[in-house]
Every structure is written in C-alpha cells, then in structure tokens.
C-alpha cells in the first residue's frame, strides 16, 4: 500500500481525505502519529498556505505529504473570510460565525460565494498544487448537520440544500476538496505511485 500523510490539524479534513483516498488503496496517515507544530500560515493565497503546511511535514517525515488550504469567499464581503476562514471570529463556534455571516449579508442583493481548496503535494519529485472550486451562495438560515465549518450556510449552485444537508459522498462528488482531490489522484495514478 502507498503511504500518504495528510498534513492538517483539522479532523474533518482528515475524515474527508480518508473517505476519498482509502478506497483508492492509499494508507492514509495523519498528524496524530507524529510530533509537530503548526507552521505560521503567512501566505497570500490558498496555494501558498497549502505549500507552507505540506513543506513543514514533508521535511519532518520524508513521507509524501499533502496539505490543503481552503476557505469560503463571499463576494458581498469582498472575498472575506477567504484565506482567513479558519481564523475568522476566532474563539467563537461555527454556529456563531455562521449567524454573523448571515447577518452581515442581510441587505445583500448578491449572495454569491465559493469554497476554494488548494492541495499541495510534496514528494521526492517536488512540489505540486491542485485546486478545486465549488460555486454557490449563502443561505438565509443555518441548515444541516453533516460536513463542518461553513457548510450549514452554503448552498451549492443549483441545489436547494446546504452542503451540510448533503450526504458525505454527495458533498465529496461536487466539493472544492473533492475536485482538487480528483486532480491529485489523477496525478498520483499517472505517476504510478
Ligand atoms: P489545517 O490548516 O490544519 O489544515 P484549518 O481548519 O485551520 O486546518 P484552513 O486554514 O485551510 O484549515 O481553514 C479552512 C477553513 O475554511 C476551515 O476551518 C473551515 O472554516 C472552512 N472550510 C474549508 N473547507 C470547508 C468545507 O468543506 N466545509 C465547510 N467549511 C470549510
């Protein structure tokens, strides 16, 4: 089996990567197996931050490492919270963060938003980045208990359910992380890893 280390401290991301990579025959490892410190995410883009996280773990373990940087960008808020999605309203839970975002959009005519995911892969051959985007809009109420983070307020384009109301396989089929993961898998398969 091929080993791959998921360089994230977010257990929800680990779960989504396991759901997608294990059926493809990968032995998925995560940071709970090693001592590590989260690097400072001081990049200006999702791709830069993903590379910062993957590099830290690759240099530490030598194992093929992937990291993702992802987030929700809302047009009415000029792209916020964007690369700051995890740090937005730090210290508050997502029920509160989601309520605040709905409130900030109460007078918005444009509710469009998108989730972006950049996956950085580092292996002996070098550094690669794979990106995925899920377009949609911000709902007027919080709905659903699946997924995590901002899923309960995100309506994927053409759907009347939030991404927290989708089953895991339904979300993975269309999500930013699902799309980026399929590009990653295509690369890994082509490389015969
Ligand atoms: P790592 O840096 O350790 O991977 P993190 O949660 O801090 O974990 P990010 O910096 O990439 O990760 O922040 C991404 C945030 O964007 C995440 O915490 C959620 O708030 C949000 N997010 C990303 N993907 C999401 C998804 O599929 N559904 C809901 N919210 C998501």
Structure description:
There is one protein chain. The protein has five helices and six strands. It has a six-stranded mixed beta sheet with strand order 2-1-3-4-5-6. It is an alpha/beta fold and 193 residues long. The chain has a single domain, classed as Maf protein (Alpha-Beta Complex), CATH 3.90.950.10. It has helices spanning 11-21, 46-61, 94-104, 168-174, 176-191, and strands at 2-6, 26-30, 65-74, 112-123, 126-138, 154-156. Helix 1 crosses helix 5 (176-191). The radius of gyration is 17 Å and the shape is globular. The structure holds inosine 5'-triphosphate (ITT). The site of inosine 5'-triphosphate has 20 residues, from strand 3.
Q: How is the secondary structure organized here?
A:
Elements (H helix, E strand, L loop, with lengths): L1 E5 L4 H11 L4 E5 L15 H16 L3 E10 L19 H11 L7 E12 L2 E13 L15 E3 L11 H7 L1 H16 L2
Parallel strand pairs: 1-2, 1-3
Antiparallel strand pairs: 3-4, 4-5, 5-6
Helix pairs in contact: 1-5, 4-5
Bound molecules: inosine 5'-triphosphate.
């Amino acid at each position: 089996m091929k080993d791959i280390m998921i360089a994230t401290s977010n257990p929800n991301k680990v779960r989504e990567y396991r759901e997608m990579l294990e059926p493809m025959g990968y032995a998925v490892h995560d940071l709970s197996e090693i001592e590590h410190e989260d690097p400072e995410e001081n990049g200006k883009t999702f791709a830069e931050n993903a590379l910062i996280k993957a590099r830290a773990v690759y240099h530490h373990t030598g194992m093929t490492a992937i990291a993702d940087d992802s987030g929700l960008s809302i047009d009415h808020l000029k792209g916020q919270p964007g690369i700051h999605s995890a740090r937005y309203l730090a210290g508050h839970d997502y029920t509160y963060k989601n309520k605040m975002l709905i409130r900030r959009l109460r007078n918005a005519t444009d509710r469009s938003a998108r989730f972006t995911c950049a996956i950085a892969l580092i292996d002996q051959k070098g550094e690669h980045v794979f990106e995925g985007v899920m377009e949609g809009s911000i709902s007027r109420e919080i709905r659903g208990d699946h997924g995590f983070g901002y899923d309960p307020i995100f309506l994927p384009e053409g759907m009347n359910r939030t991404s927290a109301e989708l089953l895991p396989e339904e979300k993975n089929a269309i999500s930013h992380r699902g799309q980026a993961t399929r590009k990653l898998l295509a690369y890994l398969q082509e490389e015969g890893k």
